[in-house]
């Protein structure tokens, strides 16, 4: 198949891990005889430096006409002056909103070979396989903000339509998995949560083969640590999802190997590792490229419909996680390139 993929390497280790993911996509294209046209554009700090804008119009236009977008990371100390008018993160928020990618997917499983890196005991981590679906373009992050000398407000607003579309996505994904959805809210206190719960229940009626349970967010924060293997698909609103997915990431032991996908109505999705620009190790060839490579696997699956190719990449990564080489964040001594080469070699066995 033919596909146009836009890459937005961004700042810090973003370019290093994105280059590795592109190398894997090129290997997939060569092996399966696909034609992927990969086109690079600036975003974040590098875009501010070169154009004055965190999301230049040319970058946005390229993303809007692409089949998929692969992002590295944005931000860093150079651009973190709180008084600055433009900040790298604005580029990412604006891109998510412009692409309408309202559902943020974060799969989480813990490879047995990495269990020692997790703060949880091995037996708790066995069989952990959760897919978080976080609402990404509504709620408190996008509501009206006010600020006076002695008070501030962040409006949290959700419409039925916003809740319904993300809930449908979660139920549809659960159908391809263990057919269980946990909806997380704070319906005992918040009006938006009561609307959330009522809407999710209504959507659930269209998916009678999927079981729905509700959890309050505070209790969910605890259950994720005590019984993580209990969960299949977890769907929640923007702010709760931001917090719970970072908590879940800590269970995996390292940020370096966790991917994400942000999806909207069309096929075009935004794919990025969950880690940031890691300024402490940027430019040294030490970054773990597996989060970016697994994000490319999600791109193959969700935007291009290439399930076999996605599984081949995931199997190659699992093999490298198990047998090494590993980067320092996973307890090894290897650099980015050695890990990439190992993935490319393993891919030949799995493709
Ligand atoms: P971070 O994720 O960049 O780094 C946290 C720690 O994890 C650091 O010690 C780093 O070296 C390590 N780490 C992260 N990714 C790694 C990888 N692939 N391989 C090996 N080690 C890795 O988070 P931090 O330090 O809070 O933020 C740094 C900058 O990144 C900030 O400017 C922040 O705003 C930005 N950021 C950007 C995100 C994005 O683009 N989506 C997300 C989170 C942070
Ligand atoms: Mg976060």
TrEMBL record:
Presence of the UniProt keyword NAD in the record: yes
Transmembrane residue ranges: none
Binding site for Mg(2+): 218, 242, 246
MF annotations from Gene Ontology: 3-isopropylmalate dehydrogenase activity; magnesium ion binding; NAD binding
UniProt keyword annotation of Manganese present: yes
Cited InterPro entries: IsoCit/isopropylmalate_DH_CS, IsoPropMal-DH-like_dom, Isopropylmalate_DH
Keywords: Amino-acid biosynthesis, Branched-chain amino acid biosynthesis, Cytoplasm, Leucine biosynthesis, Magnesium, Manganese, Metal-binding, NAD, Oxidoreductase
Main location: cytoplasm
Domain Isopropylmalate dehydrogenase-like stretches: 4-343
Entry binding sites for NAD(+): 76-89, 276-288
SMART domains assigned to the protein according to its UniProt record, in alphabetical order: Iso_dh (SM01329)
Protein family per UniProt: Belongs to the isocitrate and isopropylmalate dehydrogenases family. LeuB type 1 subfamily.
Protein name: 3-isopropylmalate dehydrogenase
């Amino acid at each position: 198949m033919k596909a146009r993929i836009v890459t937005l390497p961004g700042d810090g280790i973003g370019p290093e891990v994105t280059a590795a993911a592109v190398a894997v996509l090129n290997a997939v294209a060569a092996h399966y005889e696909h034609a992927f046209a990969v086109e690079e554009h600036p975003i974040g700090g590098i875009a501010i430096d070169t154009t004055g804008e965190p999301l230049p119009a040319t970058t946005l236009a390229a993303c809007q006409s692409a089949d998929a977008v692969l992002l590295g990371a944005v931000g860093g100390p150079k651009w973190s002056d709180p008084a600055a008018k433009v900040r790298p993160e604005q580029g990412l928020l604006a891109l998510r909103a412009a692409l309408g990618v309202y559902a943020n997917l974060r799969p989480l499983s813990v490879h047995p070979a990495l269990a020692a890196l997790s703060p949880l005991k091995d037996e708790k981590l066995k069989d952990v396989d959760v897919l978080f679906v976080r609402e990404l373009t509504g709620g408190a992050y996008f509501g009206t903000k006010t600020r006076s000398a002695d008070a501030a407000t962040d409006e949290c607003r959700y419409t039925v339509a916003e809740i319904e579309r993300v809930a449908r996505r979660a139920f549809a994904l659960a159908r391809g998995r263990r057919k269980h959805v946990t909806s997380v809210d704070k319906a005992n206190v918040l009006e938006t949560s009561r609307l959330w719960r009522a809407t999710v229940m209504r959507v659930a009626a269209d998916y009678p083969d999927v079981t729905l349970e509700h959890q309050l967010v505070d209790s969910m924060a605890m259950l994720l640590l005590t019984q993580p293997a209990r969960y299949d698909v977890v769907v929640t609103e923007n702010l709760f999802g931001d917090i719970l997915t970072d908590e879940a990431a800590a269970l995996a032991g390292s940020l370096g190997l966790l991917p994400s996908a942000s999806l909207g109505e069309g096929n075009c999705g935004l794919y990025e590792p969950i880690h940031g620009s890691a300024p402490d190790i940027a430019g040294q060839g030490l970054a773990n490229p597996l989060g970016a490579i697994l994000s490319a696997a999600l791109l193959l699956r969700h935007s291009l419909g290439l399930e076999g190719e996605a599984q081949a990449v995931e199997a190659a990564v699992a093999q490298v996680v198990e047998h090494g080489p590993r980067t320092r964040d996973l307890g090894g001594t290897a650099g980015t390139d050695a890990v990439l080469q190992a993935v490319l070699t393993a891919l030949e066995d799995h493709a």
